[in-house]
Records
---
Amino acid sequence: MLDVRRLRILVAVVEGGSFTAAAHRLQLTQSAVSQQMSVIEREVGMSLLKRLPRGVELTPAGEVLAAHAKSLFGELSAIEQEVRSSGTEPAELRIEAFATAGVELLPPVVKAFREQHPGVRLRLSATHGDDAFSRLREGAAHVVLVWGYDFAPQPVDRGLHHVALPDDPLHVVLPLDHPLVDAEEVALADLSGEQWVTRTHRAPYEQAYETMCRIAGFEPQITFRAADYQSLQGLVAAGMGVSLVPRLSLAAHRKDLADRPLAGRGFARRVTAVTLPEAQRSKPVADFLEVLRSSAGAG
């Protein structure tokens, strides 16, 4: 009988790409992860992972086992949610979302959902970067909201259910004394000689601003990289430079800043709600997705 705990470690290794990444996520030592993988290989009687100089790669047998393990954890999570929903205790729905979703996208959804399901405990938390999909499979989250830039979409995980929501277009932000502040829309190429304030991103979007500017035909002169959109907008308002920000981050409008749509070919973040396929059998999950689709479409 295969040990479920070892299967979770295997999935963590596969999703993290290495023993080190899996150990960090599971709060284990790298040695412990390696030992557990050796044990499960002895249990199945064949090699599951190819140890490479940098990371690991699945063998054909490893691919089969990892796929079944992911499916198993999805089913376990769905069973847990169904049991909770059918019991006497109120159900709980765990949502993880990127930061700017909490500014404008989620508040009306949360309000409408709570009116429909007053007995469901709704818990919201920030997404955990690369671990978001793993947390779905582990049952730590029922729905996660993620985004990816349209000019470099991230691969779709075919083992999960993806609900596409309306794009979040990027806007130009300018200090109020900028020559283009009266324009209805601004072409990115018109900002080629400007100084830029940019937002730091995790992989694979570390060079997101440089990529967009290069598509427009120029190399940006970056003066500062901010850790969040609030700091970025404050620096632009102070005259440190110009920038691009997603529209969702502009819901709380500043009076000392101008924002304009991009002219011509714009850029956007593609927003997606992701669940386990089995989780949609849970009425709270299905209803939350429906409210999310309706609210996002109306917005």
Note: The mean pLDDT is 87.
---
Amino acid sequence: MSDTGRSWMTRLTDAVLDRAGWGVHTARDVAEEVKVALRAMATPGGMRGVAMEAAWLTAHAVLYPWGAITEQLRPDGQFRHYRTDGLPPRQRGLMVSAMDAAGTPIVLVHGIGDNRSAFAVLSGALRRRGFGVVHAINYSVLTALTGDVRRSAALLGAHIERICEQTGADQVHVVGHSLGGLIARYYVQRLHGDSRVRTLVTLGTPHNGTLLAYLMPTPLTKQLRPGSELLSELAEPCRPCRTRFVVVWSEMDQIIVPQRNARLEHTSLLVEEHQIRDSGHLSLPVDTRTLHVVVTAITRSDDSLGHPIAAGGEACRPPEVTDGHS
């Protein structure tokens, strides 16, 4: 990047962070994060990621009206089949070897201003792999203007209770994209949702806020600013959480700024991290690496969940898994 580009970027981040009450040192740190993202875009994988982001943005615009229609829950799922000989080999294998995983409902929670069409690819891929109950929920498109993470988390909890009642399941897996991951985290961490959510996978979620939230002064976006009251509440020590967290973030995320704010470190949470170098924010739910992470997370043995969660940070930060080239 040229000196002119660096100077322009530094002045811009200085101005934004000065408005937020942050120091110049932090602004320079953010500028470094932006440079990391730009370097990621300059790689062959990054160029593919930019192309994927543009293509998915176009496809998503076409699918958006369809996604506004509320999805009907099909509680029988794979239990419609009492024989497996008519199923594709992949579905048959999952049902035979991991019946519990195949029968546990998967709840998909979209991001701000979006709807369930964000998961059009992911939900279909999960069903093709034998997961019978895959349900994407919608919340109001006005959430960006009038929403509240705490209220949305309570509504998510009520929705999950209905799903468990209709399917007979004791627990669910949740995949949350962007804001959806933060809503699910609040439900799990602060509303005792860890009794219902076995695994929470977050994709590009602003666990530590995003500077872009300063561009829109609404009640919801104020909650998404770094250091907000809501994020400070989530960062507080809490009782050990039974839910396993799987966090996916990208160095090329253009919505979470700085990108590392999509990471999650908490002394009371068991967190597994997957870093992707070259995926845009919108295309994270359609990235094949994301699908691999989701499938692996929700079919994994629950043995690791039986281990006690210590108070020290080491218990909450398993070895980092980097998926930059996988």
Note: Residues 1-9, 78-84, 303-326 have pLDDT under 50 and may be disordered.
---
Amino acid sequence: MKYYQIKFEFMLVNDLQVTLKVAEFKSIKLAAESLDMQIATASAALKRVEKSFGIELFVRSTRNLRLTAAGEKFIPQIEQAYVLLANIGQSVKEEQELVEGEMRLSAPSDLGRNVLLPWINELMAAHAKINLKLHISDSNVDFYRDPIDIALRYGVPKDSSMYGYKICDVPIVLCAAPAYIKKVGIPATPNDLTSLNGLCFQLHGTVHDTWPFSNGKDTFKVKMTSDRTTNDSELVKRWCVDGHGIARKSALEMADDILDGKVQTLLADYCQISTELWLVCPSRQLITPMVRLFREYFQNKCQDKLRELKSAGHLAWYVV
């Protein structure tokens, strides 16, 4: 008994469609016209199918084209195969267009817990078939090690292999609780901060205690003294709200506390600095309708929150 290995690596599903059209019209030219393609493209598709199966399906002459005996035998089976594969392709496409299934999202600590969480709850209430796994960490995840599909990150992605969407520019604000300001006074310039207590964030062993400021023209850097340092950005905010010192934070993360009067912004003329918030993923294939839904939803929510801050008299310099 002989065994034949059929090689399909260069044959496309569309090639089968071309072959069926050639069999229908008994003409490569008419088949190409019906499929709105060039004759050479249709001819190349037909050759790929014949090469893949290792048989000649048509006898060609300068004027005529007809099915061979093998063609008469196998064209019906090719039609069955095409219909099956086309249906699979359509089913995959329809499934990909559905906003349902599992989403594994990573987000920074404070942003994730206090900003994104109510937004995500609202989004999932409108899309009941989403199954979310939320990973909270101030460290950037390793997509090739951690089970994460997409991640929200501050700063422009440095890895050129990543695919990402910019969500928005995020202003950086300096704030403190009214009780702390009453105790130490309102700083007038960045230099006044050297005698105050900074609430500092630490990541990978590096303490971020040198704070940059800008008035739109000049840049200033201040080395802060601190009695509280943490690797959890949410704790920085808690300490700030509780009146233990001054924090330099994302406006998104401090927005509700600013609007509620739990903290107030300081040195507004010197805080014209922003970072960028991005939604990133490791592969273009992971950019599904669900990812696009999350992207557009986060973009709208972030813009709304920043507009609310600006309308309340904060972020005068920032263009939303």
Note: Confidence is low (pLDDT under 50) at residues 1-10.
---
Amino acid sequence: MSQQPPVRSTGSPLARPDASMSLLTNVMEHSLDDGYAEAAARRAEGLPRTLRAKLGLAAGLVLAAAVVTVGAAEARISAPVLAKEREDLIDRVEAQTAAVDELEQSVDTLREDVQERQRRALRTQGGDQGGLVGLLAGATEVQGPGVKLVVDDAKGTDQSGDGPRESSGFADTGRVRDRDMQRVVNGLWESGAEAVAINGQRLTALSAIRAAGDAILVDNRPLVPPYTVLAVGKANKLSTTFQDSVDGQYLHALQENFGIRFSISDERTVRLPAAPSLIVRTAEPMTPGAEQGSGPGTADTGKGTS
């Protein structure tokens, strides 16, 4: 049996001897990655990185300078406008202040006119007791012998609002409160005072002593310590009677227990101003033959200070 000759392929190329080392061959032929090559080409075509950064910084500085220049120009342009607006505002404030001062002067003039008319009416309608009625109503100034009582907070008084007097239902330690001044004034009235004023504020039958926070108000007007109380009356008798009264002893207790300071002295002459304003609650015209002090023609006022 004859042996077949081996079949030889003539269509395919011969394989390379180093075909089994294709990876090593690729590494040898392409030492740089394609990405590195592309980046190197771009750098070669463009500007150097340092030059590009310098140009960017220069552009930023130019832009900042332009912004500052424009802002300065706008401020220079708007400065005269702002100055004019400020001057106009000052002129308006001064004009309104002058108008308020003029109105206050007009109010004072009208108040004095009203008080003068009230005094004349009291003298005319009050008869022999017109002066007394004006005195008790606080419509007229009063001058005469009396006492001067000065009440002040204790030294180093704490402003926090707590202490033995606060916890016991009175007031802060060492602080003069509105209820203290109420007792002082009522004690002076009961001791024979004919007229009373606190720090220049004349008290009438309608006056009120109240508190707003730590401040004491007399007819809604705030007062500051020390509180100077002037009372017209028989000086020696008024001082003695008040200090022996329950309210005088109360003031002594405040001094001994809480350090509240006070002093009382007899004065040969004290001067009390008229009340700033009087409010007549009810009034009726007098009829012929009406008895003085009763019936029509009397005013509802009341007595005492709260």
Note: The longest strand covers residues 261-272.
